[in-house]
Amino acid sequence: MGEVSNKTIVALLTVALVITVVGTVVSVSKLSGLGGRYTTLTGLATDTGTTSITVAGTAAIQVTDASIDFGSGYYNVSCTTGYAWLASNAEGTNCWLNTSGQVPEPIDDPHELENNGTTSISITADISNFNASDFICGGNGCPGTSTSNVAIRMIDTSAGCTVTEQTTYTTLADDNSVTQVTLCGSLSPQDNQDDIEVNFNLTVPQDVDQGAKTATITYTGTGI
Amino acid sequence: MKKKHRIKIIYFFVFLLIISSITAIGIAPAVIKVDYSPGITNTFTFFIVQINGNVKLEAYGDLASEITLSKDILITEGSTNEVEITYTIGNLTPGKHSLYLKATEIPKEEYGKKSTISALGAIVGRIETYVPYPDKYAAISLEYEPKVKLGDKAYFTVTLENQGSITIDKASGQVKIMDLKENELVSVPLTEVFGISKQNKNKLYAEWNTEGTTPGKYKIKAIVDYDGNITGISGFNIWIGDINLEVLNMTPIEFPKNQISSVNLLVKNVWNEGILFYADLLIKDVDGKILKKTTSQTLSISQWRTENVNIFVDTNGLELGDYDAEVILHYSEKEARKSFKIKIIEPPKETKKDEVVQEPKSSISSTTLIYTTIILVALVVIIYLYYKRKGDDDEEF
């Protein structure tokens, strides 16, 4: 096999770079392109009779900062509450110490949701676990307590939510059940008025097992 | 025997960051409304777009048994997916009937055990069929801004949809403003509308001047009279307020003697505009005499946000013991005050390095990743070409 010249290598690498950059740009802008493409859709229905059909807009939801980092820590045994709580919206913690034995700095690390479509959407939240105990305590639960809890709320950072705002903490999961929470009844698609933040407050019982904990929150947007 | 200080680490809670932290999904169209025509078969196409991972589909609603779905699950990542739905309109009862098509991202497999509270996106498209009621029937909805500045007007919009089979000649009504125990405080009239034909909508408007109202939350209910038929709808609570900041917390509350320490003030903006403010932190003795005063720089806080404000305390000259601290926020010719009990303590003798290690918070954006990747690739190319050329030159010798 003959040697490949430097010019050939440079040409191939240039092509590869262009493909990479263009591919990335196309992927990232896919959703924003959706509105422009489908707002003009006509004749989506294939009639086999006579009926009247109205087609409305696009619905799209984007979640950025999709993971929340609470850091590491443990229940402060000098507390008498029997549980600690941790909040993701800069409200800090209670009866919670980091791995250095200090009260951790408050974190401000919400999930950020955006309506990327062309129509208003309602937004609900569900948790993947069976209950808060399944998430926080693990499969065997917390044997001596029943205080585990995951609470959720939204902050209307862009004043785009016009119907049913869940702005105070409400239970998404308690020790033995889960609840679907409507965070916003109608979030505007208008630029700069289409964002909300979602925060969590976790109640961690003192008898929780050490170990990795996993929860997935599904945010569902429904066109209205 | 000296008693050991026992702190048992009974819980270890780690939430790691995922670098790819953007998730998005869309569906088009969002809503398809089909007139009620029993026996007619229609085929509709929904387009689903996701940029991060695979998607599963789910159809539900009272029309779910009336449709045929072309795909059970979508597995293609990063592409537009078409889903065909064949819908034969059956005999339905009066009212709204819906089919919901839900597309949910499937989380990617993660290797290794780590703790996360992560997020997925899901989006729902909808097919709706209204079956007209045999006589007059109106469905109403209510919209208004949830927060209104004290003294401004609150505006209400009621949308009336004629879901019956006869034209509604006239509709009018009122909006009731109630306290949280649903005692009516004031009622404002809605504008009148005339001649709303079947399947059509019209809007009724009302306004409420909040001047002289006590700040707080109020319940809202709209009552509509259409040709002698009465219907009503309750809304969410409306908040009548004014520019206001609150001091929620101060941490820590123990400070080493003869040191300058950082203090976090937790400040909440409970108004729907950004506010400029600065904070004073006063340390007083038991008689209320101010011993120390620290002032922050001027800061801004966005609407409805809760944020941390850093301020420094100099404890030089203060004796060990308990003191009163007062935080004063100054903004728009107003003040917010909150008092705390603080303690001056002996400074720690030694601080181990690993006690101040903080886990770094990732702030890598997708744009940064793209640029970093391009720069790395370019570097590799340059290095390769350099050594290739050097090798060629060596061979020539």
User: Could you state the order of secondary-structure elements of chain B as H and E?
Assistant: EEEEEEEEEEEEEEEEEEEEEEEEEEEH
First and last CA, distance of chain A: 63 Å
How many E-type strands of chain A? 15
Biggest sheet of chain B, open or closed, and with what strands and sense?
6 strands, mixed
N- and C-termini, Cα separation of chain B: 80 Å
Just name the CATH architecture of the largest domain in chain B: Sandwich
SS field, number of helical segments of chain A: 3
Query: Can you tell me the residue ranges of chain A where pLDDT is under 50 for at least 5 consecutive residues?
Result: 31-50
Assigned CATH class of chain A: Mainly Beta
Assign the CATH architecture of chain A.
Sandwich
H/E topology pattern of chain A: HHEEEEEEEEEHEEEEEE
Helix-strand blueprint:
The complex is a heterodimer of chains A (224) and B (397).
Chain A: H1 6-28, H2 30-38, E1 46-47, E2 53-56, E3 59-64, E4 73-75, E5 83-87, E6 93-94, E7 96-98, E8 111-115, E9 121-127, H3 132-137, E10 149-155, E11 161-165, E12 170-173, E13 181-187, E14 195-205, E15 214-223
Antiparallel strand pairs in A: 3-8, 4-7, 5-6, 5-14, 8-14, 9-13, 9-15, 10-12, 10-14, 11-13
Chain B: E1 23-28, E2 31-35, E3 41-50, E4 55-60, E5 67-69, E6 73-74, E7 80-88, E8 95-105, E9 116-131, E10 138-144, E11 147-149, E12 153-162, E13 168-178, E14 184-196, E15 201-209, E16 216-226, E17 229-234, E18 238-241, E19 245-251, E20 254-256, E21 260-269, E22 275-284, E23 290-295, E24 299-301, E25 306-314, E26 321-331, E27 334-345, H1 366-396
Parallel strand pairs in B: 2-9, 11-18, 20-27
Antiparallel strand pairs in B: 1-3, 3-7, 4-6, 4-8, 5-7, 8-9, 10-12, 12-15, 13-14, 13-16, 16-17, 16-18, 19-21, 21-25, 22-23, 22-24, 22-26, 26-27
